[in-house]
Design goal:
This protein has seven helices and nine strands, in the order H-H-E-H-E-H-E-E-H-E-H-E-E-H-E-E. It is an alpha/beta fold and 224 residues long.
């Protein structure tokens, strides 16, 4: 965790590897439009609460607060990211904590309407990720949503090369070349089995298809 925190603090101070943005994720906005078409503003109004796991500079949770009036909390391992998120959230019903997403979630049972896990939990071990998903299930209200975006292993030559050249201890994981910590990459079947065994229902899966980039998939997941 110390190695990850050091890397992300450095990235948020002077980004070298990732393109940082203040704009909300387009993929998340597609998910929100899906939810609106399905149920209107039932899960997207000022009475609803959002938990953003790996919030970064807060760009996505800030969008939810400004657009739909949601209140919420963002967790991130980087002190610098949390500091930036707080500065950008003045006047909004949002709070932030410097915290690993692998730790227990400090929310009561069935108290959250929406959880975001966007390119974050693949840094956890299998055991940590299972605990996190159990915590997400616990804090989500019945009918609440998890928006999960993660890497897709299928037809990703870069992922297969990393798995071959820098394998980690757990199957399907490699050592990240810049951060130096394990990172997991899923097949579609792997993530479906993982989520459904935890009691979730998957409403939709959207996959990227640009062969020049790392493949990813977005999962629209609901607690029934």
């Amino acid at each position: 965790m110390k190695k990850s925190r050091k890397f992300w603090n450095k990235e948020y101070k002077d980004s070298k590897y990732l393109a940082m943005s203040d704009n909300p994720s387009e993929d998340m906005q597609k998910f929100l439009r899906f939810v609106e078409r399905l149920e209107g503003k039932q899960s997207l109004n000022e009475l609803c609460k959002v938990l953003d796991l790996g919030t970064g500079n807060g760009r996505n949770i800030i969008y939810l607060a400004k657009t739909y009036g949601l209140s919420g909390v963002g967790y991130d391992i980087s002190e610098i990211a949390v500091s930036e998120a707080k500065k950008a959230s003045v006047g909004l019903p949002l709070k932030y904590e410097v915290k690993s997403i692998g730790e227990s979630i400090s929310f009561p049972d069935s108290s959250v309407t929406l959880v975001l896990d966007m390119m974050t939990s693949h840094f956890l071990s299998n055991a940590e990720r299972k605990n996190m998903q159990q915590e997400i299930y616990r804090v989500l209200k019945p009918g609440g949503w998890l928006y999960l975006k993660t890497f897709l292993r299928t037809n990703d030559r870069h992922a297969e090369r990393l798995l071959k050249d820098a394998p980690a201890e757990e199957e399907g994981s490699y050592i990240h070349p810049e951060i130096g910590v394990p990172e997991h990459v899923f097949t579609e079947d792997d993530i479906i089995e993982e989520l459904e065994s935890g009691g979730f229902t998957i409403a939709k899966i959207s996959k990227s298809h640009n062969p020049s980039k790392r493949r990813s998939m977005s999962l629209y997941v609901q607690k029934i």
